[in-house]
């Protein structure tokens, strides 16, 4: 009986800790980082682009992206850039959208 309680307690603790870590990792992209270099015509770094999450422009009331472009949320910013080249068309601080 004692062994069962220990196993159950350990399993509960492990599940709680792993859920907290997953939650923290899922929300790291929401943290705002100022990127003065993200201006129209500039290139977004490949690492930044890949780290960002593609967003549904309709859900966030953003303009429809032109063909070959997509919106990504990166470091608390919405960035519209060419998917193939990384040329930025628009960058918006995410907190101004909601």
Give the SSE map.
Layout: H1 2-26, H2 46-51, E1 53-54, E2 69-74, E3 77-82, E4 88-93
Antiparallel strand pairs: 1-2, 2-3, 3-4
Structure description:
With 98 residues, this protein is of the alpha+beta class. The protein has one domain: Nuclear Transport Factor 2, Chain: A (Roll). Helix content is 32%, strand content 20%. It is built from 2 helices and 4 strands; from the N terminus they run ααββββ. A 4-stranded antiparallel sheet has the order 1-2-3-4. The protein is elongated, with a radius of gyration of 19 Å. About 12% of the residues have low confidence.
Observed structural traits:
single chain; about 100 residues; alpha+beta; Nuclear Transport Factor 2, Chain: A; four-stranded antiparallel sheet; 4 strands; about 20% strand
